[in-house]
C-alpha cells in the first residue's frame, strides 16, 4: 500500500480511547420545533359563521354576540336559516305590526299577555305596555313599508327565531322617511306566543348609559296613558 493510501485509510476511521477503530456515525435525525397554534381553542362552527357572516353582510350591521350564541342548541335536522313552519304565523304578524297595522287579534294570537318588548326607546312588560307601543307607532306615522328581511336563525331549542329587517317609516310632520335596519330576536313559549322580543336598531346593543334603562321603562309606563288601545274581551283574556 502506498503512503498516500495508508494516510487516507487512517483519516476515514475514528478510534475510541483504547485505539479500536469505530465505524462512522449515522447522521442525526432532523430536529423538530413546535410552535403554539395561532387559532383559538374554541373555533365557531361553520353554521354559526354562516349565520353571523351572512346576516351581517346582508344587513350591513353588527349582531349582538350573546344573542347569536344562544340559539346554537337546536337539534332539528332543518337548516337553521330556514324558518320553521311553527314560526311563520308569528313572523307574518310581526310584519303587520312593524308596518303600522296593529290589531287586537294579532296581539292576542301571537303575544303572551306577560311578554317583554324592548327596543332603544322602550322596555315594556305586559300587554298594556307593549300594545300601547304598537298602537303609538301607528299614530306617529302615516305609513310604513318593509323593504327587505332575512331569517338569520330559526331553532326549536330554544324556541326562537332571529331575523334582519329593513323598514321605512313615514313620520308625521317630517317630509323625509326614516329607514331603520334591525336585528330582531323573538323568543316563544310552547304555544308559539311571543314571550320576549328585542329590536336592535342597527344591530347595536340596547342603550346601557346611566339612566337609559330608567327612561326606557318610564316611556313604557307613560305611553298607555296617552294612547288608546282596544280593550281585550274577558273570554280572550282568561284563555291565555
Structure characterization notes:
With 240 residues, the protein is an alpha+beta fold. Mean pLDDT is 78; it is low at 2-14, 31-61 and 63-76. The protein has helices at residues 3-12, 46-59, 65-70, 88-98, 104-110, 127-140, 212-226, 234-239; strands at residues 14-15, 21-22, 111-119, 122-125, 141-155, 160-171, 178-188, 194-201. Helix content is 35%, strand content 26%. It has a single domain (70-239), classed as Nuclear Transport Factor 2, Chain: A.
Structure in a nutshell:
With 240 residues, the protein is of the alpha+beta class. 35% of the residues lie in helices and 26% in strands.
Q: Using the alpha-carbon principal axes, give the shape.
A: globular
DSSP strand count? 8
Please give the domain count.
1
**Termini distance?**
113 Å
CATH architecture: Roll
By DSSP (H or I, 4+ residues per run), the number of helices equals 8
Low-confidence stretches: 2-14, 31-61, 63-76
Structural class from helices and strands?
alpha+beta
Oligomer: single chain
Spatial order of the strands forming the largest sheet = 4-3-8-7-6-5
The amount of helix comes to 25-40%
CATH topology: Nuclear Transport Factor 2, Chain: A
> Helix and strand succession?
HEEHHHHEEHEEEEHH
Q: What Rg, in angstroms, do the CA atoms define? A: 33 Å
Give the rounded overall mean pLDDT: 78
CATH class: Alpha Beta
Strand content: 25-35%
What is the topological layout?
Elements: H1 3-12, E1 14-15, E2 21-22, H2 46-59, H3 65-70, H4 88-98, H5 104-110, E3 111-119, E4 122-125, H6 127-140, E5 141-155, E6 160-171, E7 178-188, E8 194-201, H7 212-226, H8 234-239
Parallel strand pairs: 3-8
Antiparallel strand pairs: 1-2, 3-4, 5-6, 6-7, 7-8
Amino acid at each position: 500500500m502506498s503512503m498516500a493510501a495508508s494516510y487516507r485509510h487512517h483519516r476515514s476511521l475514528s478510534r475510541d480511547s483504547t485505539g479500536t477503530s469505530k465505524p462512522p456515525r449515522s447522521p442525526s435525525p432532523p430536529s423538530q420545533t413546535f410552535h403554539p397554534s395561532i387559532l383559538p381553542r374554541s373555533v365557531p362552527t361553520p353554521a354559526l359563521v354562516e349565520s353571523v357572516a351572512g346576516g351581517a353582510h346582508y344587513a350591513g350591521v353588527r349582531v349582538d354576540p350573546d344573542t347569536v350564541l344562544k340559539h346554537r342548541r337546536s337539534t332539528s335536522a332543518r337548516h337553521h336559516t330556514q324558518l320553521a313552519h311553527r314560526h311563520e304565523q308569528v313572523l307574518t304578524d310581526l310584519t303587520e305590526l312593524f308596518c303600522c297595522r296593529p290589531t287586537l287579534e294579532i296581539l292576542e294570537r301571537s303575544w303572551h299577555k306577560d311578554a317583554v318588548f324592548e327596543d332603544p326607546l322602550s322596555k315594556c312588560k305586559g300587554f298594556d305596555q307593549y300594545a300601547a307601543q304598537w298602537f303609538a307607532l301607528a299614530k306617529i306615522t302615516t305609513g310604513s313599508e318593509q323593504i327587505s328581511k332575512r331569517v338569520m336563525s330559526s331553532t326549536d331549542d330554544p324556541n326562537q327565531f332571529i331575523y334582519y329587517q329593513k323598514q321605512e317609516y313615514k313620520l308625521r310632520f317630517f317630509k323625509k322617511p326614516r329607514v331603520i335596519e334591525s336585528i330582531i330576536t323573538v323568543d316563544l313559549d310552547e304555544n308559539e306566543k311571543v314571550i320576549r322580543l328585542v329590536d336592535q336598531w342597527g344591530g347595536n346593543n340596547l342603550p346601557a348609559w346611566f339612566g337609559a334603562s330608567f327612561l326606557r321603562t318610564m316611556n313604557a309606563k307613560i305611553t298607555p296613558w296617552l294612547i288608546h288601545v282596544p280593550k281585550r274581551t274577558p273570554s280572550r283574556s282568561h284563555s291565555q
